[in-house]
Every structure is written in structure tokens, then in C-alpha cells.
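Let's practice the habit of predicting before peeking. Look at the sequence and jot down your guess about where helices and strands might fall. Then scroll down.
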Amino acid sequence: MKKYRFKVSELASLLGINKRTLHYYDEIGLFSPDFKDDNGYRYYSVEKSMDLAVILSLKELEIPLEDIKKIIDGDMSHSKTILESKIDELDKQIESLKEIRQLATRKLKQIKMTERGFFNIEEIELQEEYLTLSEVLETDDLLTTFNAVYQLLNDEGKYLFTNNRYGYMIHTRKKIQNSKDEFYDYFYLEKGQVTQGAFVKPAGNYLSMLYTGAEAGLYKAYEDILKFASKNQYELTGYFYEFPIHQSVHENPEAFITEIQVKFAKKI
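Done guessing? Here is the structure:
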């Protein structure tokens, strides 16, 4: 039986690629025809077409052409090294995509959170969380606070400012003594996992309120929470956690939205 050889257009059509791709592969020495006739037409054997199938399968894995050439020209050790490197690269991409998905999920959760309404005090149960804290603030000076915030974000943050879950902490005894006290103890950055020296925000029952309005009126939210705790004979422990929620500036550029959380226990 006479051996059949593909023309460029036939092989390109068979494997669903552009014939210019075959010309380019020939030029760079990656995949060349079995022979060229006097008119410069390229012809490929059936066996040769299998080599092209291997090249295209590696290209689907997004392996660079120079590495594919090393695999084709080299031995199995080249293939092993290059494929191991590609798997490591893909693992990193997968982890990065997981983080981006978590970020998108968090932002969606923030949007949905505003649907529950403002100024309502809810009892929620939270799992243990791990926070990285700034240096002790103990000041109401805005510039000093911002410096501490940006320093922590630069050192520990994984994303741009608003893409991190962050907030402020003030001890319950301060707000109990004076609801207008603005001497925050720490700026915090939430971490997704345990890190050395992390502050543990304990699991348990928390009171939560979603506040919106002028920042100067935030103390009123604290007063409402304190009254609610007193009425229900709840003992507030640890810190108040303020978590700013950012929304589109097109909706209301002057909006100030924050969630306040505080751990409580029922008095005996």
C-alpha cells in the first residue's frame, strides 16, 4: 500500500489548527515536514502527525514552545523535570484562584449583610478567628492611627486596603465607662490561618449591629448595644470589634457603614 502524506492544509484541518502554525513550527525547528518538493510544498507522514499531536497536547497544558522543544528533542528526564515544574506552577495558580474566590465571596457576604437592615442587634455565633494586631494605639490622633494602619497593611496585608478584612478593637471596659471613648486599642488584620504571635478572637456568642450614618454618631450604636446587654443581663467580655464595610461610592459617597461585634455571656 502506498504511504500517504498529508499536505499542510490537510494536516492543519485534521487537527483543527491554522496552517500558518505549521509554517511557524517548521521555522523554529519544532515540527518539520518529512520533505519539501521543488515548489516548496510541505508533506507530512501519518507517523509524523502523531508527533504534532503530542506537541499540541503539551501546548494545551500551557507549556512554552521552547520547553516543548526540549521535551521532543530530549529524553524522559527532560519531560519529567518540565512537567513537575508545570504542576508546581499550576498548584500556585490554584491556590491564588482559591484566595481570589474567597475574596469575592467575602465581598458578596458584605453586600448581603446590608440587606438584614441597620441598627438591629442580633445574637450570632462565631468560630475562632486569628488576627494580626498593630502596635498599641491608645490615641485619637487620626494621623497616628492611619500610620499604624498602613504600616500593618504594608507588612502583613495580602491585598489592597479594602480587600483585606480589617478593623479596630477597643476594650469593653472603656466603652462601658464612656460610650464616646475613641481611644482604640488596636487596628487588626484578619488572617485566614494561625500565624506566629496571632491574636485569637475567641469562638462564642456575639452581639452584632450594622451601623450606618455619620462617623461622629457611631457612639450611639455602642450605647444601644450596652443598653441591650444590660436589659438582657449579658456580660460583655474582651473587645468590641469594628469592621468597616465598603460600598460603591455611586450609591452614597458619604455613607459610613460598619459592623460592631462583641462577645457576651449570660450573667448567672
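How did you do? The mean pLDDT is 83.
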